[in-house]
Amino acid sequence: MAEQVKLAYRESGDGENILLLHGFCGNKDYWKEVEERLLPTHHVVVADMRGHGETEATEPGYSIHDMAEDVFAFIKEKGLEDVFVFGHSMGGYITLDLAKNHPDVLAGYGLIHSTAFPDTEDAKKKRSAGVSKVIEQGVDLFVKELVPNLVAEQTRENNQAIIHKLFDIGIETNPNGVIGALKAMRDREDLSQVLEDDRLPVLLVAGAQDKVVPPEKTFITNGSHVTQELIADSGHMGIFETPDEVSYAIASFVNEHSKK
Fold first, then answer.
1. What is the Cα gyration radius of the chain?
2. Which of 105, 101, 106 is nearest to 193 (CA)?
3. Helices 139-146 and 121-137, interaxial angle, to 10°?
4. Band of residue 2 on the pLDDT scale cut at 50, 70, 90
5. S-S: 236 plus which of 19, 55, 150, 257, CB 3.0-4.6 Å?
6. Distance of CA 88 to the CA centre of its chain
7. Separation of alpha carbons 112 and 219, rounded Å
8. pTM of the shown model
9. C-alpha distances in Å from residue 225, one per residue of 68, 202, 207
10. Are the C-beta atoms of 195 and 96 separated by less than 8 Å?
């Protein structure tokens, strides 16, 4: 097990505790649009994952579980009781591991454009190729090629500001953070059984235009504890493309399952 890392974070607002975990090559600012919409009624905490944003980058070789343990230590240190954790993409993988190993600290959780399935063999090869590309060509070129595929076609055509924002955030990622995350995602385990455990309420949000994690990879269970939200106009980045819909889904879910 890798040594734990202290997470950089931002917090504000009062109300139910919500912790937001960003995706690959992101940072706290991935959640800015959603965060602003949740703040009037909730206590919102946004954290930078290991090797991303302002959080320390350790040598690659850590796992999604190690990243989840960073988050667990953060939750305990902050005293975030009955916290709702929502993870975007890679953040969803981290959230699921947290739900598997530390369900007692959660009031509920959500996967936003994420999946409980592991990488396919083809996806694993692409992750490994990505590691080589970052080593050989650097983060900037890798992110430049990554970003356009994250959004819906109409976003690419009509909202270049989102593309530029994603690029600006992505190129700030430490190379070790990019490589470490690629390896961790490539080697992650199948956590689909966690979603079927009905002890915790689960929110699943998918974009109808998402080519990275299509809806059928997000909506893999539909028990009574599961809420599914399909956003018609969103690609993989609903937190940028359709923040009103994502924020409403999160707020509605938290309010429904609040213990207060």
1. 17
2. 101
3. 140
4. low
5. 150
6. 2
7. 11
8. 0.97
9. 22, 6, 21
10. yes
